[in-house]
Structures are given as structure tokens and as C-alpha cells.
Amino acid sequence: MPELPEVETVRRTLTELIVGKQIESVTVSLPRIIQRPDDIRRFETELMGHHIQAVGRRGKFLLIIMDGLVLVSHLRMEGRYGVYDRSEPAEKHTHVIFHFTDGTDLRYRDVRQFGTMHLFRAGDEFNNKPLMKLGLEPLEESFTVEAFREVMSKRTTKIKPALLNQEYIVGLGNIYVDEALFEAGIHPEHPANTLTEDELHRLHEAIVNTLAHAVEAGGSSIKSYVNGQGEMGMFQHSLKVYGRKGESCVVCGYPIEKTVVGGRGTHFCPACQPLIWTSHDKSKSISRKISGNRKKTSPRGANDGSGVKG
Ligand SMILES: [Zn+2]
Predict the structure, then answer these.
(1) Under a CB-based contact definition with an 8 Å cutoff, are residues 243 and 264 in contact?
(2) What keywords tag this UniProt record (predicted)?
(3) Fewer Cβ close by (within 10 Å): the C or N end of the chain?
(4) Catalytic entry in 3, 179, 183, 189
């Protein structure tokens, strides 16, 4: 599934390919991709004549911004865009085609058919599903340590599902959550609201760095992600834990383990990411460990040092 870096790469590519073009007509051959409006013919006719002004992104959603309209598109598992000359035959699984006045097409292909499109009058997109309840945007200046602390301090769930929840923070999927938690030396099952100040800072920095590097590299191509120009992303070459079960940790050499957290396959280094914390409620003073920890760490010492790679 594309995550924030892949969607950002598609956004940048689409910006180069379609901004400035005018939609002549639209053809929808799989109605269920179109979530709004209900009437597919209305979707097709409302878009006619509009100019593409910009391509934006909110979390993993692409925003195709036109004069007076915004199309919100989610690629889900396998969706992808491509720009073609109209004379080229459409490939199998092409479900939506935007025909431009210059003789080119923007084509949306989706083998799994899970992708969605919502069309809004400009300005309405953030007051409605699916963008309405989205959380912090990790690559924008508004994503400060303070904002991150505010959101995480209220969550009693494990940190991994808290980071995957798009209502708290957007754009992080299974791959980059595993990578960011590894960078920060935090176990994926650590309760979100018991992160120490030091851990919060490390995790905040790790999220920003992991995503920024991935965006620079053009996104990962774990499954079948291809950007709008058919280029595969390159970030898979620098994944440190995801998909490396049994291989040696790049920091300490311990074998990377795979487990399930919140229903998701999860990769981590048990030595670099020990599960140990001290409850903020001192009367209980809970501390826990998992097997596989190589370092013996006292519960009181959990606040500094544990999990720091060195
Ligand atoms: Zn390690």
C-alpha cells in the first residue's frame, strides 16, 4: 500500500504532468471508485471544462485542485495514475479516464479496485469525509514535538497502532511506522501515553527523518507502487527492519524479529527496541520486559538510555 512518501512522489509527478491542462470529458467505467457524488453522470459532467491548477496531498490522499472543484483521490492498495496520448489503447483495469483538451488522458488504473474518488466544491473538502477527521501532517511545520505530545499523551493504546491511526497523525503506514520506531529505539508495543520526554523527541525526529528520506528517494516499492511516470521508487533499499525478519540488525547484529501488533505484521530489533517502561502512576510502578532483551535495564533507568543505539 502506498504510504505518505509514495503518495507525495505521485503528487510531485502528477504536478509536472497535468497542471495547466483542461478537462474535456471524463469516462468512468467502474462506478464504485466514485464515492461522491452518488450519480456517476453528474461526476462526469461536473468536471467538464475545468482546469487543473495544482495537485495537493493530505495524508495519503491526493487533492486534484481545479477552478472551483477539488477531487480527493485515494490509491489504496494498487491504484495508480498515468498520463497517455489518447491514441494509446487503455490498459486493463483502467477505471476512470480524464480526457484533456490537448489530446492526452489522465488514466486511473486499479487492479484491486479499492481506490476512491470524492468530488467537492472547493472549500468543502475539509469539512466532509474522508478528509474531515485527519490528524497531524508529519512533514509540515505544524508537526511540532508539542503537538505530537498532545496527541500521544491521551492514547493508552500501544504506540504502533496509535501511529497508524490517521485521526492522530496522517500518512504513516506499516512500513514507515516500523522504520521510525526502530530509529527511535522504541518497542512497537510501548503504550503511547507513557513515552518519556526523551522518547517523544526521538520518535518525533525519527518520523520526520524517515518520511523525509523516503520522499527524497521517491518512495518505497515494496508491492507494486509505481509513480505517475512509471518509475519505481528506490526507498526499499534503505529499509532497516521492515521485511528483514531473521536478518542481522544494522546497528547491533541481533536478528530482526517479526510479530503481530494491533493485527499488523511488525518488524523490530528486540535489542535496540526493548519493551520496558515505568508507569507515570508511581503507586503502580509497572515495568515490563519481553524476552529477547539482551540488556538488563532497571525500571527506573527506562527514562534515559534504554533503547538508545550506540
Ligand atoms: Zn539492534
Answers:
(1) no
(2) DNA damage, DNA repair, DNA-binding, Glycosidase, Hydrolase, Lyase, Metal-binding, Multifunctional enzyme, Zinc, Zinc-finger
(3) C
(4) 3
